């Protein structure tokens, strides 16, 4: 997004609103591994609200996820199916 910084004297200076990106390591309980992501602070809050990385990925739609996160979602789903079958 773009907008203006407006001073007390009403001078307008163009600026950009950038997302608050964080480098985080999230633990997958199903896979037993830690994965590094660069996600926004809002997305991190959503991951915690949904109950962790596994629950977030399984509930998220394919269009919401990056290619890497989509592959991780598939491997988590496969591992859960194998666990349920056993």
The arrangement of helices and strands along the chain is EEEEHHH
Strand numbers in spatial order across the main sheet: 1-2
* Biggest sheet layout: 2 strands, antiparallel
Could you give the count of β-strands? 4
Q: Average pLDDT value? A: 95
Strand content: 25-35%
Chain-wise SSE layout:
Blueprint: E1 2-6, E2 12-16, E3 21-28, E4 33-40, H1 41-50, H2 53-59, H3 67-85
Antiparallel strand pairs: 1-2, 3-4
Helix pairs in contact: 1-2
Features:
two-stranded antiparallel sheet; 86 residues; elongated; alpha+beta; two-stranded antiparallel ribbon; 3 helices
Explain this structure to me?
The protein is α+β, with helices and mostly antiparallel strands and 86 residues long. It has one domain. It has helices at 41-50, 53-59, 67-85, and strands spanning 2-6, 12-16, 21-28, 33-40. Helix 1 (41-50) packs across helix 2. The longest helix is centred in the C-terminal third of the chain and has 19 residues, at 67-85. The chain starts with a strand and ends with a helix.
Question: What's this model, at a glance?
Answer:
The protein has about 90 residues and is of the alpha+beta class. The protein has helices at about 40-50, 55-60, 65-85; strands spanning about 1-5, 10-15, 20-30, 35-40.
């Amino acid at each position: 997004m773009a907008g203006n910084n407006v001073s007390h004297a009403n001078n307008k200076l163009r600026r950009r609103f950038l997302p608050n990106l964080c480098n985080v390591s999230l633990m997958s309980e199903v896979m037993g591994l830690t994965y590094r992501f660069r996600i926004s602070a809002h997305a991190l809050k959503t991951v915690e609200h949904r109950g962790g990385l596994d629950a977030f990925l399984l509930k998220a739609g394919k269009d919401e996820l990056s290619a890497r996160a989509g592959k991780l979602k598939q491997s988590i789903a496969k591992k859960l199916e194998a666990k349920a079958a056993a």
